């Protein structure tokens, strides 16, 4: 054990230490909070991506996601798909379509940039070239409209 | 994207939401206070000092972010005590009660309501008046 002079030194130091320990603890908690909030916010945005881009994310976006986030996205996708299948009878209900009530089944769209070939229901393909206009079923176009490839033309 | 993104909102009353980015920014705002005991090396830690390892003597004035004030504060006031920022004091409260529309709240501090609600965490005899005042100002 320490001699008495050393012991009183140690005791005097202790009240200082209380403050420093508490201060350091506050800083650690603060850093932890900031990190957790940042990571959680990323997840909220990644979840929104499923509704924005559909089940396949563009490479440019995946590039910025960590492996764990990609894993999370896949699990969310699966969860959502399971849920949608369980709703609305035999085939399930695709909730990511028609988020706003549609005015008609087919819509006139103009192509804003070259997107290549696009397959339509009866098997024929359409070439989506910049500025070309097409009359297509709404449900096929929604994702492309949200991504800015097609533009809904109001007649 | 904007349609499906729902960030965590700020907390209600005296509670913050841990994951709310708004609350995190709000709790970064600074509070005036004073040291209730000698605090070693605090000047360096708070970024207010020149960088030597001296301690700040008891009684000196401090400015610290809300999150630190909440962390170091206790009812016995052993480490720090917290003062009301000017904007919540008596004089300003009467201005708000006269007409809150007149005051440019943004100049006074960007998180007037949230921050004001947080102040109620530190026991202060003026708390009921502060709560009244920020409530009235927002109506």
Task: Explain how this protein is built.
The complex is a heterodimer of chains A (155) and B (139). With 155 residues, chain A is α+β, with helices and mostly antiparallel strands. Chain A has helices spanning 4-53, 59-62, 67-86, 138-147; strands at 106-111, 116-119, 125-128, 133-137, 150-152. In chain A, the strands form two sheets. A three-stranded antiparallel sheet of chain A has the order 4-1-5, with helices on one face. In chain A, helix 1 (4-53) crosses helix 3 (67-86). Chain A starts with a helix and ends with a strand. The relative contact order of chain A is 0.09. With 139 residues, chain B is α+β, with helices and mostly antiparallel strands. Helices cover 37% and strands 13% of the residues of chain B. In chain B, the strands form two sheets. In chain B, strands 4-1-5 form a three-stranded antiparallel sheet. A two-stranded antiparallel ribbon of chain B has the order 2-3. In chain B, helix 6 runs antiparallel to helix 7 (127-138). The A-B interface holds A 15-16, 18-20, 22-23, 25-26, 29-30, 33-34, 36-37, 40-41, 44-45, 47-52, 99 and B 1, 3-8, 18-21, 24, 37-42, 45, 55, 67-68, 71-72, 79.
């Amino acid at each position: 054990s320490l001699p008495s002079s050393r012991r009183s030194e140690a005791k005097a130091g202790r009240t200082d230490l209380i403050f420093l320990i508490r201060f350091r603890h506050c800083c650690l908690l603060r850093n932890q909070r900031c990190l957790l909030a940042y990571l959680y916010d990323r997840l909220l945005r990644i979840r929104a991506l499923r509704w924005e881009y559909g089940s396949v994310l563009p490479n440019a976006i995946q590039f910025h996601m960590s492996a764990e986030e990609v894993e999370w996205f896949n699990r969310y996708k699966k969860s959502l798909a399971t849920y949608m299948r369980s709703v609305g009878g035999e085939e399930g209900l695709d909730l990511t379509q028609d988020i706003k009530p549609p005015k008609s089944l087919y819509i006139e769209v103009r192509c804003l940039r070259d997107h290549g070939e696009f397959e339509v229901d009866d098997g024929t393909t359409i070439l989506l070239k910049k500025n070309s206009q097409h009359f297509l079923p709404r449900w096929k176009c929604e994702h492309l409209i949200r991504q800015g490839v097609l533009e809904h033309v109001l007649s | 994207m904007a349609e499906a993104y729902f960030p965590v909102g700020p907390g209600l009353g005296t509670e913050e939401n841990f994951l709310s980015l708004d609350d995190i920014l709000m709790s970064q705002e600074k509070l005036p206070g004073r040291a209730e005991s000698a605090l070693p090396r605090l000047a360096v830690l708070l970024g207010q000092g020149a960088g030597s390892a001296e301690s700040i003597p008891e009684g000196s004035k401090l400015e610290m972010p809300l999150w630190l004030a909440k962390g170091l504060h206790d009812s016995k006031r052993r480490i720090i005590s917290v003062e009301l920022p000017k904007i919540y004091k008596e004089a300003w409260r009467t201005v708000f009660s006269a007409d809150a529309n007149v005051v440019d709240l943004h100049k006074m501090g960007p998180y007037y309501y949230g921050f004001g609600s947080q102040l109620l965490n530190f026991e202060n005899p003026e708390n009921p008046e502060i709560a009244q005042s920020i409530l009235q100002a927002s109506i």
